[in-house]
Amino acid sequence: MSLVEPTEPVAVEKLGRVHFVGIGGAGMSGIARVLLQRGVEVSGSDARDSELLAELAELGADVHVGHAAANVADADTLVVSSAIRPTNPELVEALERGLRILPRAAALGALLLDRRGVAVSGTHGKTTTTSMVTVLLQHLGAQPGYVIGGKLVTTGLGADAGAGDVIVVEADESDGSFLMLSPKVAVVTNVEADHLDNYGGLEEIHSNFAAFVDRVAETLIIGIDDPGARRVAEVARERGKRVRTYGVTPEADYRVADIEADGFATDFTLIADGGDPIKCAISVPGTHNVLNAAAAVAVADELGHDPEVAAQGLPEFTGAARRFELKGEAGGVRVYDSYAHHPTELTADLTAVRAALASRAAKSAPDAPAGRVVALFQPHLYSRTRIFATEFAEALTLADEVVVLPIYAAREDPEPGVSAELITGQVAHERVYHHVDRADAVARVAQVTRPGDIVLTMGAGDVTELGPVIVAALVQQAG
Q: Which partner for 328 in 283, 414, 471, 478 could form a disulfide, CB atoms 3.0-4.6 Å apart?
């Protein structure tokens, strides 16, 4: 994958019939769903069948399993993701016929042109924050549209056109595609070095965020605790943009205080624009999720809603798919799935779980030891593993038991000398295991757990499939 060439969006009513190459992907299927709800004729193809394809077909899309030139049929616009190769027969057909070809982000940008768009960007926390903003606006009766990189637990959907004038979308910086969005309001959660297979370094990432600032029409809401995001705030102010900040930092416009773990929920206080303290509660653990919640309240306030009333909707957020998602419980062990695939994300989730376990133990049996954390981690990308191996090992040291799978290559070819052992060899305790075979890894996780423990499957690859498998192994072990 590489940085995409920005393409300006086209108004929805000018798209004509739209064909999606790779319509079954999380991002592509959400855009297709919203276009169908808005009356646009949609077709699409994907390499394999899925529930998402079936759902789109029920909504009226003409879907195909497998790629072929004939699938394009009488489309006027072709939408492609950055994962589609130039040799794809549908892309070749569209080029030969001179059809309009849009990157996925330009199709997403089209949805913002006639709505009050809210775009959530940042290295970490995009999906959760986008989901929280959506849930708060639903709580407030705003009937927002949304396109999220994961499914909302509350609706079971990753996208919906909505009936209100606001649409909330996740803005992907990984390939620069967020530079095709023109939101009215934007969130920048944090800015760190990542996706260095696309970017030359942190400076290039900052340059792209500076360009994103120029595309925001009204307000930027920025997590000021993060040095990279603080730098974006400075750029935005220099360019005359309205900036609102959130964080534990005293000068934050939306200041967070009194964070306290309550088992796997979290209580905190929010002071919005120097007003009276607002008592808040979220149903997920971790300071990082408290900050995501503060950003969501700030967005609601910026859109004209009372922040105290908005905050009352926070407990209604119960999660998004793959973002600390409960997969099941057996033998007194809970299994969660986490999309964490960067050291900062692993650290945040593992720290949050340890705090939650300590809080739960303190309330139920103060003298009893807290449950332990068992991490099943699958590194994502050879380049990311090579660059961040030491940082991954430091993060995984926070887990009591660590099981590591081989690297999930995704879009990359193997690199000589780069393997999961770069990580396991640096974890600062001996309870770390590397398993090439997935079944052996599941067996190891079941073997080392005991009642009261939490298991986290972690990574952006197919490790997500193993949560239910682990639950089944625990059931069998308990029986």
A: 471
